[in-house]
Specification:
Helix content is 36%, strand content 22%. Helix 7 packs parallel to helix 8 and helix 12 packs across helix 13. The longest helix has 18 residues. By secondary structure, the protein is an alpha/beta fold. The protein starts with a strand and ends with a helix. The strands form two sheets. It has an eight-stranded mixed beta sheet with strand order 6-7-8-3-9-10-12-11, sandwiched between helices. Strands 2-1-4-5 form a four-stranded antiparallel beta sheet, with helices on one face.
């Protein structure tokens, strides 16, 4: 079995605002093993990006408060000093940010920016760093890399800028790669190329990957395990097969029901999750998903714990009895199948 690379224990992140305390991340725990791809999914504002930015301690807002532990290779990153942390960032843990145009410096050439990353962590000459930058640009599919290495970010398309970001993230062969919505605002053809590139480079470099996205289709394509987040908490976590074919939480049912599938009869209408995400300043009592959940009952007034149900490594935070989940899940995700069965029986 692969060794455990990262363990996040009861991470909490809150922000003081004029309206109150925003509990952006509320007790999140998970692990990532070597060579594994963990997909973190959920609606916008569910805490996905804040969680992983806190892992790298990139949030420097003076109004932010942090609790919990982030154990990376036996060290708690929440307690190390900035000098030690700078040695980890980039060389050990790298991040592909959501918008490459705002992440790349517009006044420096892309080759210089990649070379700077390399020279910050390795003892190499300028010439050697530049040669390495050209190799990386070629590896991520940039045509004519020896010429494009001297271009500025605005001279690249959106997909090419994202490739530059991937090249920079992989420049020091990190053990853990965090990809925050790497395919946002890209057309489906470029999206498929970027995902294939991440998969290929992960195999070549042996890196573990944490993929943050709201696209369940992307997760189904590349992830080994899936964590579903809602209102700052993980509400379900398990293998890709468990989450997609044996989902236990009604919120996950809603996400899966909103996907069009080619292996099932065409539905008259995709399932939508009613209502809006709750305010992280005034969370509802009990289950945070309760006000939007069609399965709500009396026990939902109590906060459910993330616990194993059917399998030890498949956990969810729902009070609903596992024995009645299957019929209700099928009715939520695939109502057309249930209706077809009822029509045949009639």
């Amino acid at each position: 079995m692969a060794e455990q690379l990262l363990e996040v224990r009861n991470l909490k992140v809150s922000f003081r605002t004029e309206d109150g305390v925003v509990r952006a991340v509320d007790g999140v725990s998970f692990t990532v093993s070597e060579g594994e791809t963990l997909g973190i999914v959920g609606e916008s504002g569910s805490g996905k990006s804040v969680t992983m930015m806190s892992v790298m301690r990139l949030i420097i807002d003076p109004n932010a408060t942090f609790e919990g532990e982030v154990i990376y290779k036996g060290r708690d990153l929440m307690s190390v000093n900035q000098a030690e942390l700078r040695q980890v960032r980039g060389s050990e843990i790298a991040m592909i940010f959501q918008d490459p145009m705002t992440s790349l410096n517009p006044v420096y050439r892309v080759g210089w920016q990649i070379s700077e990353q390399i020279r910050a962590h390795e003892h190499v000459s300028k010439h050697g760093a530049r040669a390495r930058a050209i190799e990386l640009l070629q590896a991520v599919g940039i045509p004519h890399p020896a010429e494009r290495v001297d271009d500025f970010p605005h001279q690249f398309s959106g997909g090419m800028r994202q490739r530059v970001m991937i090249a920079m993230a992989l420049s020091c062969s990190p053990s853990l790669l965090i990809a925050d919505e790497p395919t946002t605002a890209l057309d489906v053809t470029i999206q498929a190329q970027i995902l294939e590139l991440i998969r290929k480079l992960k195999d070549e470099f042996g890196s573990a990957v944490v993929l943050i996205t709201h696209d369940m289709g992307v997760v189904a394509d590349v992830a080994d395990r899936v964590a579903v987040m809602y209102a700052g908490r993980i509400v379900e976590m398990g293998s890709k097969h468990d989450v997609f074919y044996d989902a236990e939480h009604p919120y996950t049912w809603g996400l899966l029901g909103s996907i069009a599938r080619i292996d099932r009869p065409k539905p008259r209408r995709l399932t939508a999750i009613r209502g809006l995400p709750p305010s992280l300043i005034n969370l509802p009592s009990g289950c945070a998903f309760g006000p939007r959940c069609p399965q709500r009952f009396e026990m939902c007034d109590q906060v459910p714990e993330l616990a194993p149900r059917a399998a030890f490594d498949h956990t969810d935070a729902c009070h609903l009895d596992p024995t009645i989940k299957r019929s209700r899940r099928d009715l939520t995700i695939h109502p057309e199948l249930v209706e077809g069965t009822n029509e045949q029986s009639a």
